[in-house]
Amino acid sequence: MQTTAEEIAALRRERNAVILAHNYERPEVQDIADFTGDSLELARKAAAVEADVIVFCGVYFMAETAAILNPSKTVLIPDETAGCPMADMITGAQLRELKAQHPGAAAVCYVNSTAEVKAECDICVTSGNAERVMATFPKDREIIFVPDRHLGSHIAEKLGVSYILWPGYCPTHARLTAKQVAAARAAHPGAPVLVHPECPKEVRDAADERLSTGGMCAFARTSPAQEFIVGTETGILHRLRHENPGKKFWPAAELVCPNMKKTTLEKVRDCLRDLSPVVTVPEEIAVRAKRAIDAMLSVG
Ligand code: 13P
Ligand code: SF4
Q1: Which of 4, 103, 19, 13 has its CA nearest to residue 58?
Q2: Rounded to whole angstroms, how far apart are CA atoms 166 and 169?
Q3: Domains of the chain and CATH, by start
Q4: Of 59, 172, 211, 248, which is least surrounded by CB within 10 A?
Q5: pLDDT score, position 300
């Protein structure tokens, strides 16, 4: 009898499919993926896919971004209820209202947003390129930044500017406290503390590095340190440990994104077998959202 991983391998060939997975996915899902990465790396990969089918193991906005960037491909999401609560904290209508209150302001969205919100924006950012992208704006430009108030205030602080922020946040990263970071430091003295910029300010201030998930993987690879404290969703520990077998990685706290964990091997197999659920974005929204994503990708 075939294992689920073997069934997936056969279906992947039959369907001419590529499987992309986010760094927070379950270990067994990361293991069968063709590529595992952060939001920026996955968007770039999705845009370049030549296969007929993309199976996106991540949350809905990520699969939507793949469908927008590579519209001739069939984009599948193994569980279509895998949403990102932060992305759902602002609607297109709410952003339009905010823009009407600030005529002339540039509108910027974190890629953790719906296609409808991206369609209202001048440019997107991810946690991996936010500082680089936001540095392209003149310092005196009025800027609306949605939906993550933590990433927005982190970048504004770094660049010495201020943004009109939407009060959105990630419920998973919001749970990490400076007290937990201090306890992890006491337990693992000398280990650098890496946190995601979606963490609250007191946690970012208590850390040594504020990095995207891809940034954390790069940091761990090149740092001479042998132990690290990791303040983000614990799915990333699988990749960090796999890529750095001699090094130790300690979670700052048990942070789990329930939506990232909805993808199982069985659901990957079933979506390849059934070619469903398919992620589509209405043409009128996709065209405008693509402008904002392309503007981000062109910054490099
Ligand atoms: P990264 O782009 O850093 O992987 O972050 C995505 C995300 O959803 C973090 O919660
Ligand atoms: Fe969204 Fe937070 Fe989950 Fe990332 S970890 S997908 S921001 S809820």
Answers
A1: 19
A2: 9
A3: 4-83+260-281 (3.40.50.10800), 87-169+288-297 (3.40.50.10800), 176-251 (3.40.50.10800)
A4: 248
A5: 74
Give start and end residues of each alpha helix (H) in the chain.
Answer: 4-15, 27-32, 39-48, 60-69, 92-101, 115-118, 130-134, 149-159, 178-187, 201-206, 213-222, 236-243, 265-274, 283-299
Closest among 141, 177, 181, 146 to 159, alpha carbons compared: 141
Beta bridge partners of 143: 106
Percent of the chain with pLDDT over 90: 100
Ligand 1 nearest-atom number relative to CA 37:
4
Please determine, for residue 145, whether its predicted confidence score (pLDDT) is greater than 80. Answer: yes
Residue 118 has pLDDT above 90, yes or no: yes
Nearest CA residue ID for atom 1, ligand 1: 38
283-299 vs 39-48: helix axis angle to the nearest 10?
A: 110
Q: In whole angstroms, what is the distance from residue 234 CA to residue 162 CA?
A: 31
Instruction: State which ligand 2 atom lies nearest to the alpha carbon of 85.
Output: 8
Sign of the Cα torsion 277, 45, 248, 228 reads negative
CB-defined site of ligand 1, < 6 Å: 23, 38-39, 112, 126-128, 170, 196, 198, 212-213
Q: How many CB atoms lie within 10 A of CB 60?
A: 21
For residue 59, pLDDT over 80 is answered with: yes
Please give the model's pTM, rounded to 2 decimal places: 0.97
Q: Give the residue among 120, 110, 89 at the shortest CA–CA distance from 154.
A: 110
Can you tell me the mean pLDDT for 63-87?
A: 98
* pLDDT over threshold 90, residue 67: yes
